[in-house]
Design brief:
By secondary structure, the protein is mainly α. The chain folds into 2 domains: 85 residues, Tyrosine recombinase, N-terminal domain (DNA polymerase, domain 1, Orthogonal Bundle), CATH 1.10.150; 177 residues, Orthogonal Bundle (hpI Integrase, Chain A). A hairpin with a 4-residue loop joins strand 1 and strand 2. It starts with a helix and ends with a helix. The chain is globular, with a radius of gyration of 23 Å. It is 57% helix and 4% strand. It holds the Pfam family Phage_int_SAM_1.
Length: 295
């Protein structure tokens, strides 16, 4: 059965253009799925029925797997069976009648505007590495890009004259995101004072480079965010998506419409963006409780 996983994942990579990270996650999910079936003495795909898939989902829940991960595994299973049916490897798709697990939408951790400001000013502006790091932080907050997108951002995809950048996101989908004035100033300074000195006589298509003139890794991005959060004495948990979550939350708090935020974040489904409206509701409840005479 597992040989068909390779065929399916190759289809996702070549024809659907899904990222390597997604392919790796789907491979893990499907291997766990088929391992479960084999343990339950189902060794042929055609013998898998709806109840077997439901049993697998329940076993995941009982094992303490997070609801989001359970939902992702079901998505992988559905795509796998749909592919097998379309390719006529299987006559039927047993996953079609299975409902998605109702997810408890966890409100993502965000920083306040003051915390973001405190974090962004931490890099030493007198140091070439500090100048680069300030540009990185300003770019992340100005655009809401994923860290993986910022790491792979090409120099030629940034237009400082008109204040926009072209971002290549999941599934190689492109989107245009505005740059704020402060981000433009920081990137301009980085271009002049740091980047040429890092590169020396080398060339790089990537916007952000290390002090050795190479593309910065995701791990380095993550480390510098944590470093400056510590310097800013921020006690909240800091994750790679913290700037992204804060970007979306602050826009919506100031009246931005959901569709525009969805487009800037690169969400395929607006329901993904709607998680940030829960943050606004929680904030409103907190304000109401604090200031209403009869809370």
């Amino acid at each position: 059965m597992k040989e068909l996983i390779d065929t399916f994942l190759n289809y996702l990579s070549v024809e659907r253009g899904l990222s390597n990270n997604t392919i790796i996650a789907y491979r893990e999910d499907l291997n766990k799925y088929l391992d479960f079936m084999e343990k339950n003495h189902i060794e042929v795909l055609s013998k898998i029925a709806k109840d077997n898939i439901t049993d697998f989902m329940l076993s995941q829940r009982d094992d303490g797997i997070a609801p989001n991960s359970v939902a992702r595994r079901l998505a992988a299973i559905r795509m796998f069976h749909r592919f097998l049916a379309r390719e006529r490897i299987l006559k039927t798709d047993p996953s079609t009648l299975i409902d998605s697990p109702k997810l408890w939408k966890r409100v993502p951790d965000t920083l306040t505007v003051n915390e973001v400001e405190a974090l962004i000013v931490q890099p030493d502006a007198r140091d070439r590495q500090g100048i680069r790091d300030r540009a990185i932080l300003e770019t992340l907050y100005a655009t809401g890009m994923r860290v993986s997108e910022a790491v792979n951002l090409k120099k030629d995809n940034v237009n400082l004259d008109i204040g926009f950048l072209r971002c290549v996101g999941k599934g190689n989908k492109e989107r245009i995101i505005p740059l704020g004035k402060k981000a433009i100033v920081s990137i301009t300074r980085y271009f002049k004072a740091s980047r040429p000195k890092f590169l020396k006589d080398k060339q790089s298509e990537f916007l952000f480079v290390s002090r050795f003139g190479k593309k910065i890794s995701r791990q380095s991005f993550w480390k510098l965010i944590k470093k400056y959060a510590k310097l800013a004495r921020i006690k909240k948990p800091i994750k790679p998506h913290t700037f992204r979550h804060s970007f979306a939350t602050h826009l919506l708090e100031r009246g931005a419409d959901l569709r525009s935020v969805q487009e800037m974040l690169g969400h395929a489904d607006i329901s993904t963006t709607q998680i940030y409206t829960h943050i606004n509701k929680d904030r409103l409840k907190s304000v109401h409780k604090q200031f209403h005479p009869r809370p």
